[in-house]
Amino acid sequence: MHGVKPAGTGADGDMLDVAIDALDPILALMALIQISGDRTLLHRYWDALDGRQESVVEAFRDIDAHDARAPVDPAIARDIRDALRVAVRSARPAVMPQLDMPMFRRMSRLLLGRDLPEMSMAVAFQHAGFTTDTRVRAAKQVPPADFKVIVVGAGMMGINAAVKLQQAGFDYTVLEALDKVGGNWLTNTYPGAAVDTPSRVYSFSFEPNASWTQFYPRGPEFLSYLDRVTDKYGLRDRIRFGTWVEGAEWDEARKIWTVKAVRDGKPETHECHVLIMAVGPNNNPNYPAVKNLDRFKGPVIHSAVWDHSVDLSGKKVVLVGTGCSGVQVATAIADRVSELVIVQRQPEHIIPNPQAHAPVAELERIAMERIPFVVNWKRLQSLESQMGDMHGMVLKDEEHAAKTGGFGPINDGMRMMCDHYVRSHFPDDPAMVELLTPNFPVFAKRPILDCGFYDTLKKPNVSIVRGELVEADEQAVILSDGTRVECDVLLLSTGYELHFGRQFDIRGTGGKSLKDAFDPHPFSYEGMLINGFPNFVFMGAPYSYLVANHAVVSEQQVHYIVELLQWMVDDQLSAFDVTPEATRAFVDDVDTNLANSAWVQCGSAHGYYRDKGADGQKKVILAIPRHNSRIWHDLRAPRQADFTVIRRDGAAPAADRPMPMLTI
């Protein structure tokens, strides 16, 4: 991970020199200290560099936005860069590849210009990639050969689980319905599909990618990253592709799961001691209820299952939906179609995003690829805004609300930014501003990073109407107010059905199904475990989203899973199950705090955050109202008092090994 390509000569070497000369001197110093192992450099340059940091903001803003800063003395910057040049060209192994925490504290303080909160210090250390091993339990036993783990899904979560299970010595198999790795990124191929989290941090911390070509990579580039990780860690032979899991049943007597699947049209049965579902919440496309939709003569395409055989060139197209995928599709196809009518049920908060289509500068890529540790320190810069206190962003500040009528300091600030942004695009069109301005807090629905949507709306062949699709005829769609819009093609960007495992026939203790357990709404303990389903881990279960990107969430959950499995091995457990009391305590605490959030106090906002039960009632189950740094600490190790466990017959926990004194 921290290797460096040979410096070379000629054009290749010249480009490295140019990249070093363009590198921020403070960041250059970070790399130099680790390569050389010279801690005194930190003290030597501290006074000259402190207060001259570049503040990089990652969360929902330009990730290279920075405040005005005093320039570094050119002579000092030259000294640092020249020393770094010599160190890199030597191509010798880094003297300090691993940082101790005191050194990380001081170096991060100089780089960021402030001390990270204590709760975020270890979190930043890991997620910036300065450690690849966060295990807490000192393993006493090697996992036995007959201890089997099955992971369902080879998307981002499943790949993460496979890497760490392999490193921890567990025998595992991944069952994947598709023929390649990638999950949603394999199936979401609509025009404009892109990651809406900056590429610097949307990757595994143990395998940062220095070679992103864009700040917000397109789907194919992210898929190629997952392919590289799969091959680097030798996972492909452990993945059984084309295997559709139908369900699983807990065998109480044998303490194993029997997994039922179909491959090549033939039923299969697999057995395991621990079953890990890594399928994610976004499953089948969500089709709106539209009367007589089958009468429409043209193609009907959902963004989640795009039909690339349909040529949109010169067509009149109606696009329904202005969420994340909707704005990406609109921006991507507007110049190809003859006319685009966008049907917006509700406006969204859209945030400035200058780097939506921007490439990563060649010199930055060279620096991250060729200079050890630069990719980690840049990653830390992008993580910084997530590591601080976020008071008043998602949870309501009642005192602030009483004084201002708003929601919270950060939430109101973001809302004002969004309002200013839409007005700046349509300064002479108050009707359009009103049409595009939500009347609810930011985060009541997922905020959208602008990928050029407002500029798309200005195109002469593009229009947007407020309404809801309710009916169709042979040549048109009809909105709720009776408006009839003729079109050749109907595109639906209307999201997914969030099953949370209810699409599988999973049966736990006493044969109770997961679907029945989740009536009226899905729930979990710590976003992963469900009472009544022993030895079952559901990654990305309810109460685990919206506070960090998918890479961060999955790494934290996988860490917890490995700790849980090692506890089973060390204490000779045949089964674990979280108690109903612990589950209720967790759910009650989360629900109580959710009540004070923009996700629940959402005004008129609708959307996928809210699960609709059989009783018609809606409940927020996707989010967890806790700072992600707290979650990181919560998931360091299982709280054993929250579990009922069964020990293997005749077995005892592994004892500490005696250490008799040796003599000569």
Automatic annotation (TrEMBL):
Q: Boundaries of each FAD/NAD(P)-binding domain copy?
A: 147-356
Protein's UniProt name? Predicted flavoprotein CzcO associated with the cation diffusion facilitator CzcD
InterPro entries in the record, alphabetically? FAD-bind_Monooxygenase_sf, FAD/NAD-bd_sf, FAD/NAD-binding_dom
Q: Which terms in the Gene Ontology molecular function aspect does this entry carry? A: oxidoreductase activity
Name the source's superkingdom. Answer: Bacteria
